[in-house]
Write a structure and sequence with these properties.
Pfam families: HTH_IclR (PF09339). With 250 residues, the protein is of the alpha+beta class. The protein contains 9 helices and 9 strands.
């Protein structure tokens, strides 16, 4: 699966884009779960565009429903983005194929399960299980996390997409086809992630499970990894690159 964008989602590119469409998309990337509502001055500062240019682009985005604006001058993503998200989910082949798989992984392991792709310098959650839990220690669908923040899924995505994150951990992933992260992003959490490949060897993303460290043992994590491998295989996908699968046949 190709990256969705080569630009940073935080809007901090060194040189702001000059094209009209590029500017609009650049401004949309300023919004995040951490900062869902922004004022003109915030968007201009974050995007690197001057206020006049930013305001013109914002007016167009509001007109077409990609942004909403309040009377006190705050902007936030509008309903048009929700429509596009729904279309993406309904037409994405990999989402359709893996939604049930991710749910099965969560049910069998009793842990939070998700599927991530890399988009520029972010990892984006395309699927997560729908189980109810007492604690919110998962990433919501559509949410992005900087690759630099680490975590098991980030290291798997980096290893197989050529992202420069941690060469030693990337080598481990390429050798073992999984990565376990303990307390890297949150001292209370442990996560394990495996790469997912199409039959032709195309890398499509990373499947990950996340648990509270106090509730699982190393053996529990190993069993979770085996569950992920089995469920991915049942979905007619693989957790090993094509060359490894071919070699295993001889």
């Amino acid at each position: 699966m190709k990256n969705l964008s080569s630009k940073s989602r935080n809007g901090n590119d060194t040189v702001p884009p000059s094209g009209v469409l590029d500017r609009g998309l650049h401004l949309m990337n300023c919004f995040s779960l951490e900062r869902p509502r922004l004022q003109l001055r915030d968007i201009a500062a974050q995007s690197g565009l001057d206020k006049a240019t930013t305001l013109r682009a914002l007016k167009t985005l509001v007109t077409y429903g990609y942004l909403e604006k309040s009377e006190d001058g705050y902007y936030w993503p509008g309903p048009a983005t929700l429509r596009l998200a729904a279309i993406f989910r309904s037409t994405s082949n990999i989402v359709t194929r893996l939604e049930r798989t991710v749910e099965n992984i969560a049910l069998e392991t009793g842990q939070a399960a998700a599927f991530f792709i890399r988009s520029g310098d972010q990892r984006v959650c395309l699927i997560r299980d729908r189980q109810k839990r007492d604690f919110r220690y998962f990433v919501d669908v559509g949410a992005s996390v900087p690759m630099s923040a680490g975590g098991a899924a980030a290291h798997v995505l980096a290893a197989y997409s050529g992202f420069d994150l941690d060469s030693e951990k990337a080598e481990f992933v390429l050798t073992n086809n999984y990565y376990i992260s303990r307390g890297e992003k949150n001292e209370h959490l442990v996560s394990a992630a495996l790469p997912i490949f199409e039959a032709d060897g195309e890398f499509v993303g990373a499947a990950a499970i996340t648990a509270l460290r106090s509730t699982v043992t190393d053996d529990d994590i190993d069993r979770c990894i085996e569950v992920v491998r089995r469920e991915i295989s049942l979905a007619m996908l693989s957790t090993q690159a094509a060359a490894e699968n071919d070699n295993a046949a001889f």
